Amino acid sequence: MSKKWLSSMLTIGSVALSSYYYGAYREKQKLLGNGRLDSKQQLELLHKHISKPAFPLFATVSAAELAVMPEVNLTATPLRISQIMKYGFPSLDNVRSYSDFVLSYDRRNRVPNWVFEHLTPLSVAKNEEVDRAKCDFKADESIHPYFRSQNSDYFRSGFDRGHMAAAGNHRLHQKHCEDTFFLTNMAPQVGQGFNRDAWNRLEMYVRKLTKIYPNIYVCTGPLYLPHREDDGKNYIKYQVIGTNNVAVPTHFYKVVVAESTDGQLDMEAYIMPNQVISDDTPLQIFQVPPESIERAAGLLFFDKVNKKQLVKINGKKV
Amino acid sequence: MSKKWLSSMLTIGSVALSSYYYGAYREKQKLLGNGRLDSKQQLELLHKHISKPAFPLFATVSAAELAVMPEVNLTATPLRISQIMKYGFPSLDNVRSYSDFVLSYDRRNRVPNWVFEHLTPLSVAKNEEVDRAKCDFKADESIHPYFRSQNSDYFRSGFDRGHMAAAGNHRLHQKHCEDTFFLTNMAPQVGQGFNRDAWNRLEMYVRKLTKIYPNIYVCTGPLYLPHREDDGKNYIKYQVIGTNNVAVPTHFYKVVVAESTDGQLDMEAYIMPNQVISDDTPLQIFQVPPESIERAAGLLFFDKVNKKQLVKINGKKV
């Protein structure tokens, strides 16, 4: 997360955000069955939002125009891209927003890539009206059936359906709590000794940070870390469970940014192995440089953070 | 690839396309160092292209508005999403377009997710002006250094830098051929007996389809398939090479759509193991239902194809 990169990502990020929102909004419209548009309307809408000459990418190319266009493109011209991708993109982003958290779903591994939460003293406070016992684990029907994890995948697997966005972080409303029970927010976790113990301790620790800081941002997700075998080569190996081959991550990460009232930020980053961890193990030994998670996960965390605001990483002054 | 899904994907796809193009265009602008905008200009641009009320997601929320907004959201409100994601998305799509092909890069595995090509008799024809021998394998500097595969990762690994978009498919211009040598277009492949033999035979076969069909669309990529071990459990296991842990896929896929002059489409789908394959093995035995690749890869291929146009899959009438 170098300074140069941060600043370039800051701008790219905000642009990417808009494209995501636009796509997400339209996809939601489709999924909800509202405002279905025929293809002509769709095209009109697209054109309306993409003006020339800044965004000529969706300009209609007539046969006449086509005839005078050079045959050889040396950069990726919009026309050429639309030719290559004529029958659709195999994947774009897989970001989903729920009532109180946002996640990116890994359609290959049927678990999230990352889950993002924003905690406040209010969102984590005990609330009589929210009853976790009434929440049911449920498949997310908005995920294509090919990629959708099911309760049956976890059944008798020996693994817990482990929350990435913790249920206890979302207590403002029953719906917020219920949404954390979508299987898109789960990954297979060792139960006794991990999900119900060390991992839970980490979740409680993060929740308690709201007693010190008014705003906590948390990103949580799985890792598939390599190990060296006797042949001297490095391998990534992980179990998959159920008919949908849901991946059992080798490790989990949590990256936390705590924002104080004056805007100063403290960052902490953790990697925990998905295995029994003894109760007397201090959480601190799982702290790692945030970069090590970024490299292993293929992600960049908090890239919009202004480095000047960042005071501490893992308790040490930057 | 059900009919219902196809039609819904058709519309979603075209919308996703626009969000991608918008993001890709802007990112390219940034990467090329052209038309850099300050953050105020960026915001203005965003607002210009996102009108209310259809796209209220980027509407600026003033402190006054904030004060009257309900505290508890039951659906993902734009405001809440922007609060949660205040410091940036860890990932969005990773689609890149080159002069004559388009790919999605897997930042975790440092190989592509998929590479898309459009072949024509012209693009694959021998061209005296294009010299493959002058092309060098090169890292793509537009990928963040944390996720960028390097020539050194492949060096002495025992694996070839295997093209996904084949060099021989892009002969219209030297630049088209050169672009296929970006390491973003590569994955580690067994050399003798695979990359230089069976895989090459498949590439040549696809290329020759342009003698029958005027337009060929090809999607190529890696797979990480599970296997059952003695303990009765299923595992995904693959080697990683070099300091950047570049994944060695267990298999590779190729999905081909051949478009005839009357618009009829024939589809073929192949999975080949990344290992020595004997020269007398007919290509046909590697044919699989396209759905099996989609499930394993977490992708949907050719979802904008109109089912009515689709005549054959793997040589059999639909």
From TrEMBL, chains A, B:
Residues 97-308 form the DNA/RNA non-specific endonuclease/pyrophosphatase/phosphodiesterase domain. The keyword GTP-binding does not apply. The active site is at 163 (proton acceptor). GO terms for molecular function: metal ion binding; nucleic acid binding; RNA endonuclease activity; single-stranded DNA endodeoxyribonuclease activity. It comes from the Eukaryota. GO terms for biological process: apoptotic DNA fragmentation. Mg(2+) binds at residue 195. GO terms for cellular component: mitochondrial inner membrane; nucleus. Residues 98-308 form the ENPP1-3/EXOG-like endonuclease/phosphodiesterase domain. Signal peptide: none annotated. Its cofactor is Mg(2+). InterPro entries: DNA/RNA_endonuclease_AS, DNA/RNA_non-sp_Endonuclease_sf, Endo_G_ENPP1-like_dom, ENPP1-3/EXOG-like_nuc-like, His-Me_finger_sf, Non-specific_endonuclease. Its EC number is 3.1.30.-. It is found in: Mitochondrion. Keywords: Disulfide bond, Endonuclease, Hydrolase, Magnesium, Metal-binding, Mitochondrion, Nuclease, Transit peptide. PANTHER family: ENDONUCLEASE G, MITOCHONDRIAL, ENDONUCLEASE RELATED. Belongs to the DNA/RNA non-specific endonuclease family. This is Endonuclease. It comes from Glossina fuscipes. The gene is LOC119637070.
